Amino acid sequence: MGKSFSLMIHGGAGAFEQVRSDEDAVRYHDSIRTILDEGRKILARAGSALAAVETCAKLLEDDPLFNAGVGSVLNEDGKVEMDAAIMDGTNLEAGAVAGVYDLANPIQLARLVMARKEHVMLTGEGAMRFADECDLARSPPGRLITEGRLQQLQRARGVDRLALDHDAVDAPDDEAGTVGAAAWDVNGNLAAATSTGGVVGKRRGRVGDTPIIGAGVFADNETCAASATGYGEDIMRAVLCKSIADFVQLRGLTAAPAVRAGIDYFERRVNGRGGVIVVDRHGNCASGFTTGKMIHGWIERGGPSKSRF
Ligand code: ASP
What we know:
By secondary structure, the protein is α+β, with helices and mostly antiparallel strands. It has helices at 22-44, 49-62, 106-116, 124-133, 147-158, 161-164, 232-238, 240-251, 255-270, and strands at 6-14, 82-88, 93-100, 121-123, 179-184, 190-196, 217-219, 224-230, 274-280, 285-289, 293-299, 306-308. The strands form 2 sheets. An 8-stranded mixed beta sheet has the order 4-3-2-6-5-1-11-12. The protein is globular and about 45 Å long. Aspartic acid binds at residues 12, 67, 175-178, 196, 198-199, 208-210, 216, 229-232, 235.
């Protein structure tokens, strides 16, 4: 059997109530499949899992359909504050940024933090200073904000979502759209990346699970690569991605049963609302979620591109 590769990407968990027609659904599926194809090109020519997840996360950030990069949700001040992280399963190196703004691609900054090997996470002003040092172009003010996100914040304010935070909301439709990728390359290396604008109307300075290694992202060649989405407060408390990696390692499970065990734990222990994509060290792909839907797509061992809500 020739050397193969696998790739999974997601565009967030939630109710996706805004997807009311087949036409809306097609837009999501098209975007997911187009981006999977870009990842496939990298992996098929023996590119690294790390390159594939960075590229896929960047392309997802560039699509205003998703809550990352342009199209990020807005905080209580009507501003964009984004979090992102990337992890290399070959050596457990990781890079993360939190509370960054005016950047089209926070995942690139996370990758630069990782490459510098000095720190794992930078936040806010310090992260932005590092972005300037690395000559990452700043987006002009307001460029990341879409009309849809402005209306969404108004709606959230109308129902006092700030006070409710998460609890009174059945399904995190408005929070849907975080992006992530997990890949297994022809050399058997794993990597994962996650990027988000966070949750709508969040407090200024709030950091979710996305940049927390082990919570919103994790990759280890000994187990699996994983990216999570949903309520960051739930995901952090369950350390969801690392919990699933532990099920792989300690119980000797493949991706699908490990995801089932992880989602069961997530639901049982924190009443968790969210989902996860996982590629294990043999290239098996699996996903699980407790929300109504999670838009995601995958290529398992070089097979056809598939996408699903
Ligand atoms: N997990 C993200 C956060 O809490 C949001 C999401 O996945 O939609 O910041």
